[in-house]
Amino acid sequence: MLYELFIARRYLFSKKSTNAINIISAISMVGVAIATMALVVTLSVFNGFHDMVASFLTQFDPQLKVVPIEGKMAPADDPVLDNIRKLPEIDIASDVVEDQALAVYGERQAMVTIKGVEDNFSELTHINDILVGDGDFELWAGDIPYATIGIRLAVRLGTGARFSGFLRVFAPQREGQFDMMNPEGAFVEDSLMSPGVVFEVKQGHYDDHYIIVPLSLARRLFAAQGMVSSLELRLKSGSNFDRTKKKIESLCSGRYKVLDRYEQQADTFQIMNIEKLLAYVFLTFILLIASFNIIGSLSMLIIDKRADVVTLRNLGATDSNIRRIFLFEGWLISFVGAIVGIVLGLLLCLLQEQFGLLRLGDGSASYVVNAYPVSVHFSDIIVVFLTVIGVGLASIWYPVRYMTRRGM
Predict the structure, then answer these.
(1) pLDDT by residue (tens digit) across 134-167?
(2) 128 secondary structure, DSSP code
(3) Positive or negative CA dihedral for 260, 265, 270, 273?
(4) Radius of gyration of the chain (CA)
(5) Of 72, 128, 62, which is closest to residue 93 (Cα–Cα)?
(6) Percent of the chain with pLDDT over 70
(7) Which of 41, 71, 87, 387 ranks highest by number of CB atoms within 10 Å?
(8) pTM
(9) pLDDT higher than 70, residue 197
């Protein structure tokens, strides 16, 4: 097999009797390299957007979130939750009550998600890093509750960062019977003031719908005294994340789910992964088309090397040996194209990361980032390399077998 690979390498780089064979081989190699480069760059851009979204969510979502498997609420004094709070790896544990409500400000109204949190919410998350306005995160002004609103929701309601008067919130009455003669009695109403700031996660799910309020107000609004919809956790520095998560899951006894940040936003990241997979599939088809050029190069090479084949036969080479020579020839074209394409792709990603060559828009619009983000993952490079080699071998296997039978 070593001499077969040696002969294939000689055929690849040596001058042929017909210059067109060298040209077609070079074109085949360039086509594979360009398709490989496109795969590396495209997958890295998807990784960049994935990592960028994840960085936004780490400022609002907790490290771990414990939610009931059945129903919306669970007792706050559940022994399971108490045991989780007491774990030595837990730095901060915060009860949360979250549900839907109607927010009204002046003549405007919107369906919103009310998130009731404890006073340690700013320690649990990085909420202070994503505030817009003049002030810090606060839940109370004396006995008056504050409402910290998502920035896009503030635009819809017309409140701005600091609104005057009260923001009213309404939730359906959970207890008692509905009185048709008194429709207002079917709702629980509460009023909130502005802390002078809004938050901007740069993620529509939060910025367009969420209002952060004190936990006691949310419990009163949703008739959830002594209940929680989730227990949000922050681990101590140096704690092993995966081990701690498994430890908490073992305590939950099948009654609660333990969600990390990616699982809390499973829909968002699943869509991004599907988009990345589709891009990979489409570019692999382009790679397959580019690999067809290798077939033309090999067919001409087989015709050009008929005399060499006769010589090899006289030296004792079998049909299988000769076939492997041309298979190695096609494999080498794919291999060199893959290496060149990966190197060019990594170089482009480095230039994009350093200089932002490919920008979003013309600079007049407001974007979260000015240029396409890139993030190279080693696992993607391995997948791309194996894909190129696999597609190259698959595309030439049958044609080489057929052509060597006809041409020898």
Answers:
(1) 888 999 988 899 999 999 999 999 999 888 889 9
(2) G
(3) negative
(4) 31
(5) 62
(6) 89
(7) 41
(8) 0.81
(9) yes
Task: Using alpha carbons, list the distances in angstroms from residue 177 to 156, 206, 220, 396.
Answer: 33, 33, 18, 75
DSSP, res 147: -
> Which tokens belong to 77?
């004094």
In the block, tokens 């940040």 appear at 261
Pair type for strands 140-141 and 256-260: unpaired
Q: What are phi and psi of 276, to 5 degrees?
A: -65, -40
Report the distance separating Cα 406 and Cα 408, nearest Å: 6
- Tokens for 366, please give them: 């407001």
**Between β-strands 167-172 and 148-150, what pairing exists: parallel, antiparallel or unpaired?**
unpaired
The two structure tokens encoding residue 57 = 């969510």
- In this structure, the number of other CB atoms found within 10 A of the CB of residue 263 comes to 14
Query: pLDDT tens digits, residue range 326-373?
Result: 788 888 889 999 999 999 999 999 999 998 888 876 655 556 778 899
The residue type of 362 is D
**45/67 Cα distance (integer angstroms):** 33
Q: In this structure, what token pair is assigned to residue 339?
A: 């290496």
Residues recorded for the chain? 408
